[in-house]
Design brief:
The complex is a heterodimer of chains A (about 375) and B (about 375).
Chain A lengths: L5 E6 L20 E2 L3 E2 L2 H9 L4 E6 L4 H7 L13 E6 L12 H7 L1 H5 L5 E6 L2 E3 L3 H11 L3 E8 L10 E5 L5 E6 L7 E11 H14 L5 H8 L5 E5 L4 E3 L3 H10 L3 H7 L16 E3 L4 E3 L1 E3 L4 E2 L2 E3 L2 E2 L4 E2 L4 E3 L2 E2 L4 E2 L4 E3 L1 E3 L4 E2 L4 E3 L6 E3 L6
Parallel strand pairs in A: 1-4, 1-6, 4-5, 8-12, 14-17, 15-18, 16-19, 17-20, 18-21, 19-22, 20-23, 21-24, 22-25, 23-26, 24-27, 25-28
Antiparallel strand pairs in A: 2-3, 6-11, 7-13, 8-11, 9-10
Helix pairs in contact in A: 3-6
Chain B lengths: L5 E6 L20 E2 L3 E2 L2 H9 L4 E5 L5 H8 L12 E5 L15 H6 L2 H7 L3 E6 L2 E3 L3 H10 L4 E7 L9 E5 L5 E6 L8 E10 H13 L7 H11 L4 E5 L4 E3 L3 H10 L26 E3 L4 E7 L4 E2 L2 E7 L4 E2 L4 E3 L2 E2 L4 E2 L4 E3 L1 E3 L4 E2 L4 E2 L8 E3 L8
Parallel strand pairs in B: 1-4, 1-6, 4-5, 8-12, 14-16, 15-17, 16-18, 17-19, 17-20, 18-21, 19-22, 20-23, 21-24, 22-25, 23-26
Antiparallel strand pairs in B: 2-3, 6-11, 7-13, 8-11, 9-10
Chain lengths: ~375, ~375
C-alpha cells in the first residue's frame, strides 16, 4: 500500500533482557513461536497488514538467523520495488554491553532515519507477540494531537511474568504519568508494549538528546523522561499479548495459544501472520500415535503420544515416546520410549539415551540446540 | 544455477474430464494433491531442482486459476534475473486468427517465437498432470551421451497392461525402432511417459513442416515421433523407475493420496534434497483438539482436527468437528466436516461442507465417492 504517513521501526530487546537457553543461539526475534513462526514475524506482519511499506529492522548480535528468515521481505507482502524492508546493523558492542542500546543503534543509522519521507514513525519491539493495526493507532495519535502515543496492555500476572518489562502509570485521561521497570510488586499492572507513535521529528530529537543524558539510555528511558514535559498518552491493547522476556514467559505464551478460542481470536484470515516457508511436506501420523490438545507443524513423523504440546517442523516422535506440556522445536528427534514433560527442546536436538526430561517447577526444563542426550 | 541450455515446456491444457466436478472450473494440473500441493507443482519443482531456468506453461482449458498460479514463479524459485515461468495461452497472431492448440505439437509450434527468444540447444516437453520426481538433467546427460535427436522417458508397465499405453519398441542399445499407440499385441512393456527431450533445431524444422501438413493431428505421439523414426532419426528410450502416477480418475487420485500414508512410499515427499515447492499460506500449524483421535493420517498445516481421523489425507484449512469421523478419505483444502458426520471412502472436493450427522460414502463400496457439493446435515 502506498503513501503511508508513517514508517516502521522494529526494535530489538533491551540489553538486560535475557531468555535462558534459547537466547544463547539467537536474538529473541528469531525465536521459534508456535512451531512455524518466528517472533519477529508478528511485528513485521502487523506493519505490513497496516499498510506500512517502509520498515527498518534493527539487528544487533547474532543476526544470521533473522537475516536468513527475513530476506527481501517479499513473504511479508511488502512490495519489493516501492516498499523496502531494511535490515540495519549495529557494528559495536556485545548483546549484553551497557552500550548496546536501541538509541546507539538509531544513532549509528541516523542518516537512514532522517532520509525517510514519512512524517511519523511507529516503533515496535521484536520480542513481543501481539496483533495491532498500526494504521488505527496512527490515526488515533494524529487526531488526539498528542506528542507520543504508547501501547499498553493490562495484565493480572505481573508478579510472575513480564518481569523485564516496563510498567506505565496512567492518569484518568490515559495520560502517562510515569514509566518504570516492573518489579513484580503487584499482580495488576499496565505493561508497556514498547510500542510508540510519534512524529519523525520528535523521534530524531529524542535520539539526539539521549546522547547527552546518558550513553546507556534507551528510547524507553527517554520516553519515561518525556512524561514530565511532553504529552504522552496510553492506548490500550486488547487480545493476545506476550512479552518474550524469560523462558517462563516464552513457555506460557506458546501454551496460551493452545487454547482454541484464544488462538482463533488471534489468528484470523483477515489479518494473517506471514512467515518464510520451508516447503515442508505434511505430517505423518502413524498407527499407534496419539495426539491431543496440541499444535503440530509440517514434515513431522509422529509415532508416539503428544499431549498439550507444540511440535515444530521436521520433528520425529518415536514409538512409545510421550511428550506432555512441552515445546519441541524443529528438526528434533525424540527417541522411542523417551518421556518429555514440561520442557523446551531446542532445535536439532536428539533425546535418546536419557529416558526422561522433565521439570517439576513452573520453569520448564531446557535441552540445548544440537545437543544429544 | 547450472546452465543446462535446456528450456522446458509444460503441456497443461488438458481438462481431465474423468475427474468430473474436480475439473469443472480448473484444469487438471491445478487439481490439489497430497495435503498441500497442486499436481503441476511436481513438474515445476522438478524443473527448478534440475537446474532448468526457463519454463513455458501451455494452458488452454479453464486456465484462469492455473495461469495466475504458475505465473508466481517465485514459489519454485524461478524468478531470478535469468529464470522465469511463462504462461502461454493461445493468442491471435498477425498472420493467423486466434487458434486453439490443436494438439501437443501444435501447442509448441504456435510458440516457436517464445522458444527462439531463448535460443536453447535442447527442448524438454513435459506433461502438467503427472505426479513424480525426476532429475531431467540426468535424462539430458543420457540424451547427449547417445548423440540422440530425441529421447523419450519410458517406464516398465506390466505386460498385460501394455496395450493401454503408447509403447516404445527398442533395440539392445535402447534405440527406439518403433512406436505403437495402444497396441493390441504389445512387443515391449516400455510405456511412454510423455516426457521428451529434443534438439531444438531439428524439432523446429519438424514443427514448421507439421504445421503445414493438413493430414496431421499435430500430436507428438501420433505424428512427430513416428515421422522421426521413419526418417531414420536417432531416438532413445530413457528408463525411469521411480514413483509415477497419472491421476486420470477419482479412484486413481484417491489412491495416489493414500500412497502417502505409507511412510516408506516411493514418492518420498520429505526428502529435503528434492523438495516439491508450492504456494504457502499464513495459517497456524495443525490444531489437534483434546477430543481428536488420529490413527494413520497425512495432515497439512492449518487443519483443525476435533474428531476421529483414520487412514486419510487431510489438506490445508480442513475442519473436522468433535464427534465427526473421517475414514479412508481424502479431504481437499477448506473442507468442513460438522459434528457427528461420517465420511468413508470418499474424496471430498475443496471447500465442501458435510453437515451435522450426515453419512457420506460407504465402507463396502468398490468405487471412491466424489463429494463436490455441500451435504445437508440433520439435527
Amino acid at each position: 500500500m502506498a503513501n503511508n504517513k508513517a514508517f516502521g521501526v522494529i526494535n530489538s530487546a533491551a540489553n538486560y533482557i535475557r531468555v535462558e537457553g534459547l537466547h544463547d543461539y539467537r536474538p529473541i526475534g528469531a525465536f521459534s513461536f508456535l512451531g512455524r513462526f518466528r517472533v519477529i514475524d508478528f511485528p513485521i506482519s502487523n506493519m505490513s497488514n497496516s499498510g506500512f511499506d517502509r520498515i527498518h529492522v534493527y539487528l544487533n548480535s547474532r543476526p544470521r538467523s533473522i537475516v536468513e528468515h527475513i530476506g527481501d521481505g517479499r513473504h511479508y507482502n511488502i512490495n519489493s520495488k516501492r516498499g523496502n524492508l531494511q535490515l540495519l546493523f549495529t557494528q559495536n558492542n556485545g548483546a549484553s554491553s551497557i552500550y548496546n542500546t536501541d538509541i546507539n543503534a538509531y544513532l549509528e543509522n541516523l542518516e537512514q532515519i532522517e532520509r525517510m519521507p514519512q512524517d511519523y514513525v511507529v516503533v515496535a519491539p521484536s520480542y513481543m507477540v501481539y496483533k495491532q493495526d498500526y494504521q488505527k493507532l496512527l490515526d488515533e495519535h494524529i487526531s488526539s494531537g498528542t506528542d507520543i502515543t504508547l501501547l499498553y496492555h493490562k495484565v493480572d500476572q505481573a508478579k510472575e511474568y513480564f518481569r523485564a518489562c516496563n510498567v506505565v502509570n496512567l492518569n484518568k485521561q490515559k495520560g502517562v504519568e510515569s514509566i518504570e521497570r516492573n518489579m513484580g510488586t503487584a499482580k495488576d499492572k499496565n505493561i508497556s508494549m514498547d510500542t510508540y507513535v510519534m512524529s519523525k521529528e520528535l523521534f530524531i530529537e529524542l535520539i539526539k538528546k539521549a546522547k547527552k543524558e546518558s550513553s546507556g539510555y534507551s528510547l524507553a528511558n527517554m520516553i519515561a523522561l518525556a512524561c514530565n514535559t511532553l504529552d504522552v498518552r496510553g492506548y490500550q491493547h486488547k487480545g493476545f499479548f506476550a512479552a518474550i522476556t524469560s523462558l517462563d514467559d516464552y513457555y506460557r505464551a506458546n501454551m496460551e495459544l493452545l487454547d482454541y478460542a484464544t488462538s482463533m481470536d488471534f489468528f484470523k484470515p483477515d489479518w494473517q501472520f506471514y512467515t518464510k516457508t520451508t516447503d515442508a511436506c505434511p505430517t505423518q501420523y502413524f498407527h499407534g500415535a496419539s495426539v491431543k490438545h496440541s499444535m503440530v507443524c509440517n514434515a513431522g513423523l509422529i509415532e508416539g503420544t503428544v499431549e498439550n504440546s507444540i511440535i515444530g517442523r521436521n520433528v520425529h516422535i518415536g514409538k512409545g515416546a510421550v511428550v506432555k506440556n512441552s515445546i519441541i522445536l524443529s528438526y528434533t528427534n525424540i527417541g522411542d520410549g523417551v518421556q518429555i514433560e514440561n520442557a523446551v527442546i531446542d532445535k536439532w536436538a536428539t533425546v535418546k539415551k536419557v529416558k526422561r526430561v522433565a521439570s517439576d517447577s513452573v520453569t520448564p526444563a531446557y535441552v540445548k540446540r544440537n545437543d544429544i542426550l | 544455477m547450472a546452465q543446462t541450455n535446456m528450456l522446458a515446456m509444460i503441456l497443461a491444457g488438458g481438462r481431465g474430464s474423468r475427474l468430473h466436478e474436480l475439473t469443472n472450473k480448473v484444469a487438471k494440473p491445478a487439481v490439489a494433491y497430497g495435503g498441500k500441493y497442486r499436481i503441476i507443482d511436481f513438474p515445476l519443482s522438478n524443473c527448478a531442482n534440475s537446474g532448468i531456468d526457463i519454463v513455458g506453461v501451455l494452458t488452454q482449458y479453464e486456465s484462469v486459476l492455473l495461469n495466475s498460479y504458475v505465473a508466481a514463479g517465485g514459489r519454485w524459485g524461478l524468478d531470478t534475473k535469468d529464470s522465469g515461468v511463462f504462461v502461454l495461452t493461445p493468442r491471435e497472431k498477425a498472420d493467423s486468427g486466434l487458434d486453439v492448440y490443436r494438439g501437443t505439437a501444435d501447442a509448441i509450434s504456435q510458440n516457436i517465437d517464445f522458444v527462439d527468444a531463448y535460443d536453447p540447444e535442447y527442448l524438454l516437453i513435459l506433461s502438467g498432470d503427472h505426479i513424480y520426481k525426476m532429475n531431467y538433467d540426468k535424462m539430458l546427460d543420457f540424451h547427449k551421451a547417445n548423440g540422440a535427436d530425441a529421447t523419450i522417458a519410458v517406464r516398465s508397465v506390466p505386460m498385460k497392461e501394455a496395450s493401454r499405453f503408447g509403447i516404445m519398441n527398442t533395440d539392445d542399445e535402447r534405440r527406439i525402432v518403433e512406436f505403437e499407440e495402444k497396441p493390441a499385441k504389445p512387443k515391449s512393456n516400455l510405456a511412454s511417459m510423455g516426457i521428451y527431450i529434443f534438439n531444438w533445431k531439428t524439432m523446429r524444422k519438424l514443427l514448421v513442416e507439421d504445421m503445414k501438413n493438413a493430414e496431421s493431428s499435430h500430436d507428438f505421439g501420433n505424428d512427430i515421433i513416428p515421422k522421426m523414426i521413419d526418417s531414420g532419426k536417432k531416438l532413445y528410450a530413457y528408463e525411469f523407475s521411480g514413483y509415477w502416477k497419472d491421476v486420470g480418475t477419482i479412484d486413481s487420485l484417491w489412491e495416489a493420496n493414500m500412497d502417502l500414508l505409507d511412510s516408506n512410499n516411493a514418492l518420498n515427499l520429505d526428502d529435503t534434497t528434492w523438495k516439491i515447492y508450492t504456494e504457502d499460506t499464513g495459517v497456524i500449524p495443525q490444531y489437534i483438539a483434546e477430543s481428536a483421535k488420529i490413527d494413520c493420517a497425512y495432515i497439512n498445516q492449518g487443519a483443525h482436527i476435533g474428531g476421529e481421523v483414520s487412514r486419510s489425507v487431510i489438506f490445508t484449512n480442513v475442519k473436522i468437528a468433535p464427534g465427526a469421523k473421517v475414514i479412508d478419505s481424502v479431504l481437499m483444502p477448506g473442507v468442513i466436516v460438522e459434528e457427528g458426520a461420517t465420511v468413508t471412502r470418499a474424496l471430498v472436493a475443496g471447500n465442501t461442507r458435510i453437515g451435522k450427522n450426515a453419512v457420506v460414502g460407504n465402507k463396502k463400496s468398490e468405487d471412491i465417492l466424489l463429494v463436490a457439493k455441500n451435504v445437508k446435515g440433520e439435527d
